[in-house]
Write a structure and sequence with these properties.
mainly alpha, two-stranded antiparallel ribbon
């Protein structure tokens, strides 16, 4: 009974959006209904513990890096006045540990906070810049946004379960998606602050920098020869705010943990992948077989490789902007895909978010050759890898190699699908360029014909001009 078009119109965000206009989210009845659903699932889980049964059968739902229950040991040390980084492996940041430590005895409030952040993620992902494409009319865009929002809030099982489990991935994605949305609407100050928070929580969010650079370009008002102009003043302001906010976050962390052991535990150990756990990514098996002597070098190459994609993606976004084909959502999904490829502790919720963004570009999907085959291959690889996880960890009849190769099958099909989508975007850009070239040629020929009154050109028709 929920009207998708009405919800899309109701959550419309103005192009001159400010932080105060985010209050429209909190005036929506759907917002509170989605939170109530997540709190109800938490209540059922406290009574029947159904998430334990689901996790025993559905692997990759969470990892220890994102698991809230893994903070119990840190809370134990803090309650006795000791540093939570005395344990051998602790990849969590001081602000996260100390902040959630204050609420350790109020789990319902923690679930309420995580549910609120997750519902906000749904609204931000359903915002106009993410789901809009050039073919959408106002009504079609409203319907698309409404359907996106309704599916994410009520029918995405991984989002619902992540809130029940209080997955720490929600905090990371909330900060980066909020920063991207604010940056798109030129709210530079809060965007830089939230981007600094996301980098503090996970430095690998540097891979999504193209989403933050693309909105800083604008088209000069020249219809015949449009050119992109970079807003250098806003870029310098954004970088300054980000750096200052990072200093503040690290300063507070140093105040909370004066021994600075947290730098080694939560950043350097995370960088060299000292802790291995089977998950959706392929880094855990790759580095578990790596010699200790070359682990640091391999980790450096592993993390620096995605940085080479930033400039090409920025150029792609600029070409889309210049050709009047805004696909900011596609650029965002592309950046998050690269982030997931190099994610050492990936979970299913992250994957569903990226796939849902890709599916909003429905006009691109038919142009991707073998789209259904790639989706089928990804699904089969993922399901078989989860089944082999059960065989390996419960029946003790397999090993990690079986699981690893099936995750590689999943990522291979995912990469092939991404390549076909990029080819479709390139074909779209080439078609736009050819169309503009033909239109410019016809316009020049017509102007020449009109400038020669002594000769009759009435025999020239449009097909004749095209043939010329």
């Amino acid at each position: 009974g929920i009207n998708a078009e009405y919800m899309g119109n109701y959550m419309e965000i103005n192009s001159k959006m400010t932080i105060s206009e985010f209050s429209h989210i909190f005036r929506s009845k759907l917002f509170y209904l989605a939170i109530a659903l997540r709190l109800f699932l938490y209540y059922l889980n406290e009574q029947y513990h159904f998430t334990e049964a689901i996790q025993s059968r559905l692997y990759f739902l969470e990892t220890k890096y994102y698991s809230f229950s893994e903070l119990d040991q840190s809370f134990f040390f803090l309650s006795r006045g000791r540093s939570p980084y005395n344990i051998d492996i602790n990849l969590h940041k001081p602000l996260v540990i100390h902040g959630l430590f204050l609420l350790r005895n109020y789990k319902a409030i923690v679930v309420l906070i995580f549910s609120t952040l997750d519902v906000m993620i749904g609204y931000l992902l359903a915002s106009k810049p993410i789901v809009h494409s050039i073919e959408d009319s106002v009504q079609a865009l409203s319907v698309k946004r409404g359907r996106f929002l309704i599916f994410y809030l009520f029918f995405n099982p991984f989002a619902l379960l992540s809130c029940t489990l209080c997955s720490l991935a929600i905090i990371e994605y909330w900060s980066i998606i909020l920063s991207i949305t604010l940056n798109y609407y030129q709210a530079i100050l809060p965007s830089g602050a939230f981007y600094a928070l996301s980098l503090y929580l996970n430095p690998r969010f540097i891979y999504v920098a193209p989403c933050l650079l693309s909105p800083l370009y604008q088209i000069r008002t020249d219809a015949k020869n449009p050119k992109l102009k970079f807003r250098w003043a806003q870029f310098v302001l954004f970088v300054t705010i980000t750096v200052l906010a990072l200093f503040i976050f690290f300063g507070i962390s140093a105040y909370l943990e004066p021994e600075l052991r947290w730098i080694q535990r939560s950043y350097l150990d995370f960088f060299v992948l000292r802790y291995y756990e089977p998950n959706m990514g392929f880094g855990w098996s790759l580095f578990s077989a790596m010699f200790d002597k070359y682990r640091t070098l391999s980790s450096t190459i592993f993390y620096l490789t995605p940085l080479a994609y930033i400039i090409p993606i920025v150029f792609l976004g600029n070409r889309l902007t210049k050709s009047d084909t805004p696909r900011f959502g596609f650029i965002a999904a592309l950046c998050f895909t690269i982030f997931l490829f190099y994610q050492p502790y990936g979970i299913l919720w992250e994957f569903t978010v990226v796939v849902q963004i890709f599916l909003t570009n429905r006009d691109l999907l038919p142009k991707a050759k073998g789209f259904l085959v790639f989706i089928y291959g990804m699904s089969v690889g993922l399901l078989i890898s989860m089944q082999l996880m059960s065989t390996w960890t419960k029946s003790m009849r397999g090993n990690a190699t079986f699981v690893y190769w099936q995750t590689m099958v999943f990522h291979t099909f995912y990469a092939l699908l991404l390549g076909e989508l990029l080819k479709a975007v390139k074909g779209e850009l080439d078609a736009k360029k050819s169309q503009k070239l033909v239109e410019a040629t016809i316009s020049d020929m017509v102007s020449q014909i009109e400038g020669a009154p002594s000769v009759s050109y009435t025999h020239l028709t449009l097909p004749t001009i095209y043939s010329v």
